[in-house]
Design goal:
Blueprint (H helix, E strand, L loop, with lengths): L2 H21 L4 H8 L3 H8 L7 H11 L3 H9 L2
Length: 78
């Protein structure tokens, strides 16, 4: 996987997590409070202006009760 493909995959995963958050009516503020990630970081991540670490993505996915590996697999082959 080259850098461009990795960035595209990262953006797709972040977009999917954002949709999950919105579908569960969870605000950025609540997500930040519950995960310990700053609200500004959540905003920048969801705006695709900041690249989160795998650990950060796992914390978000865990709070949203979604399997991060399933999301990654969904976009990996596209």
């Amino acid at each position: 996987m080259n850098k461009r493909q990795a960035q595209k995959l990262s953006d797709q995963v972040i977009t999917s997590l954002r949709k999950q958050r919105l579908g569960k009516n969870i605000t950025q503020y609540k997500l930040a409070k519950e995960t310990g990630i700053s609200k500004s970081s959540i905003y920048y991540i969801e705006s695709l202006k900041q690249r989160p670490t795998l650990y950060t993505l796992l914390m978000i996915a865990d709070y949203l009760e979604v399997n991060l590996s399933d999301i990654i697999k969904q976009f990996e082959d596209k």
